[in-house]
Automatic annotation (TrEMBL), chains A, B:
It comes from Arthrobacter subterraneus. It comes from the Bacteria. The lineage of its organism: Bacteria, Bacillati, Actinomycetota, Actinomycetes, Micrococcales. This is Transcriptional regulator, LacI family. Residues 4-59 form the HTH lacI-type domain. One of its GO terms (molecular function) is DNA-binding transcription factor activity. Keywords: DNA-binding, Transcription, Transcription regulation.
Length: 333, 333
DNA sequence: TCTATATTGGAAAGCGCTTTCCATACACAT
DNA sequence: ATGTGTATGGAAAGCGCTTTCCAATATAGA
């Protein structure tokens, strides 16, 4: 990657390195216009491209923001990523992406790679776990100590910088609404309990059920993806011995889709034989049939808020982003 | 971002900078084990994190690979991104992501930002246009001249490094198969003609139709997304004055979904009144109803191949990745 | 024992920038 | 003519690392 350097440009323009730097890469001092013009012409002619690494080293700021997601191909995360990307552009920052899916240690690896690359901030999307990996925590603590900003999406408002998401409230609101529509029997398709997002939503479900004087007919734990929903729904159906009209509360849309598919594979149709709800209101699934009853979350906005929080020190921590209950055909409509 | 530096570690361990570097960050020379141990202990104790920027500057290689997509929230691109991410991890590379959606110049901006960050390679996913932006071309040319590798996904096998995708062949195979199933009337929901991917697929459709002695009943141009499909289907339906049993060939799955929604909004049901096909076989849409007749593309694999091509100089350019026709309910099943 | 040859740690020169500090030049007031 | 204050370009130090080159020591050969 040998390329035209600033000193090459300076020489070509017959000025010093310092002057060239001041002209091309912004500074409080602005050289005289005729000189500046000469430098710009030289840069253009030689095809100068500033070396961001060298700038980062000299300025000790990289203009990079790291984004950690579980699975970038999951529409939940990719929507968030879009928001982050969008906001980052406004700050003229580049996004370093890590999709940590398979391995347990990948999250830690990603954070330490980001620390190594001296990203100005790190955004953790929904990856915060209930029992935190101590290595990860230490890595993050050190990162913050060195001036890096860490923002989580969906953390509790107390724990450092976070874009709080009304997971519990949204889940509760959904149940309350369904109850008001006359539904009485519920089962919960819970994600892995160590995932905060999943846990908060389950908490919302159960507390609202309790408030309505109800108890979940079943709580099935499973993976946080389509296959998890598929399995969970089938196991749940078995556990309920084919009881009709039960509403399966999945902790996200992708699981809900899986659940509907799992039921269909058993010859159970939604919403005729069973009801299913999701959470997130993934755009790609808007046209799904039967249309999904869910809790709408402005995912892209979550990403944007996270990026704002990460990149703008003056940004106040936002109020919890509320979810909006959306009743569609898969339950209650 | 003041942090522990290598020279701090060296001092703490009582060795020179050179030795510390050799121990911690790999080199052809391996210092004696007792010394190495001392250095490692010092690094651990102080919490040393190597500065990737400084390393990049000294080594003139950043360990970064840039990925340019149109819209990271589009499942087509996010699946590819997942593949790229996955492969990059094997090479211990980090992925710099740019989602260029709205503005025209964003693609150019992204490439020049990547050039500035001295990414070792740039992967352009489906962004190659028929009438190339001369600025972009120049930027890419310069980048390559400086030793950067550029890989496109779905380019023609001639044009530089590319992971060729059998867009035309897949499209043709789909039509041929549908014809063999007895379908005779087709309309094409084409994407924007300047997009190579869209154009190649349309070409495949028309050539197969021609080979079967047929002509498209309509060709409707529109955006490459859900809304584009929605509009296109409605306009198409109008143009065909409600003719029944026509098969609408959308150039991708997301448009197909939009098309089905558009038709449904007109009270037209698929596959009873009209047929619709997609392209890509997006995983998130596998459970869609009616299930989508489409051409399966191993999207994640495309991303992986692209990353291999970008990061491994010995990697031979792969053969075109073929699409596999999948007949489901939305047409022909 | 003495020279020829590896082996090993360290000093120092960059990598491409930013930024502080200095020297010069110029404007103006005295 | 002298002094003061203010622009402005350039020299050079330094950001944190890698790597070449050197010197010193250890090993082998005769």
């Amino acid at each position: 990657m040998a390329a035209v350097t600033l000193s090459g440009v300076a020489r070509h323009a017959g000025v010093s390195l310092a002057t060239a730097s001041r002209v091309l890469n912004g500074s409080s001092r602005r050289p005289a216009e005729d000189i500046a013009e000469r430098v710009r012409a030289a840069a253009l002619e030689l095809g100068y491209v500033p070396n961001a690494q060298a700038q980062a080293l000299a300025r000790s700021s990289t203009g990079l923001v790291g984004l950690v997601v579980h699975d970038i191909s999951d529409p939940y995360f990719s929507s968030i990523a879009r928001g982050v990307q969008h906001a980052a552009r406004n700050y003229r920052r580049q996004v370093l992406l890590a999709s940590t899916d398979p391995s347990e240690s990948a999250e830690h690896d990603a954070v330490s790679a980001f620390a190594s690359h001296r990203t100005d901030a790190i955004i953790l999307a929904g990856s915060r776990r209930a029992k935190p990996d101590p290595d990860l925590e230490q890595e993050l603590a050190r990162y913050q100590q060195n001036g890096g900003r860490v923002v989580t999406i969906g953390g509790s408002p107390g724990s450092g910088l976070t874009v709080p998401v009304g997971n519990a409230d949204g889940a509760a609101a959904l149940v309350t609404r369904l109850v008001s529509l006359g539904i009485r029997r519920f089962a919960i398709l819970a994600g892995p309990p160590e995932l905060n997002t999943a846990r908060d939503r389950v908490k919302g479900f159960t507390s609202a059920l309790e408030a309505a004087g109800l108890e979940p007919a079943a709580v099935v734990v499973s993976a946080f993806n389509r296959e998890g929903g598929f399995d969970a729904a089938q196991r749940c159906w078995e556990e309920l011995q084919g009881e009709h009209g039960v509403c399966l509360l999945a902790v996200n849309d992708v699981m809900a889709i899986g659940a509907i598919a799992g039921l269909r594979a058993l010859g159970v149709s939604v919403p005729a034989d069973a009801l299913v709800t999701g959470f997130d209101d993934i755009p790609t699934l808007r046209d799904y049939f039967p249309s999904l009853t869910t809790v709408h979350l402005p995912l892209e906005q979550l990403g944007e808020e996270a990026a704002n929080l990460a990149l703008n020190p003056d940004q106040a921590q936002p109020d919890p982003i509320p979810g909006e209950v959306i009743i569609r055909e898969s339950a209650g409509a």
